[in-house]
Amino acid sequence: MSYRSDPYDPKQAALLDQSALDDAVTAAEKAFAAATEVDALAAVRHQHLGDRAAVSLARREIGALPPAAKADAGKRVNAATPAINSPPAQRLTEDRLQALHSLR
After folding, report:
1. Judging by beta carbons within 10 Å of its beta carbon (0-12, 13-18, 19+), is residue 61 exposed, middle or buried?
2. 46 pLDDT more than 50
């Protein structure tokens, strides 16, 4: 039985470590670089930004932290998210631009 004064121990608190978030960003960057086609890029994007991705799971754990730790953890997760989200967006934009130029 849980009481209000009991501290909650997050199940996956290790996901909130800066090193774990850095590892997630590095893995995503490598996967995006290896994806050669648009379909592969979309699949890799889902793996690294979907519901079961490390950053998404880390975001869920923030709510279980004590109030003093929430802000710092939130900043770390919020910094990792665009680092993962921008490479596929850039690649898709570049691919679309190349497709438009090839039509000319």
Report:
1. middle
2. yes
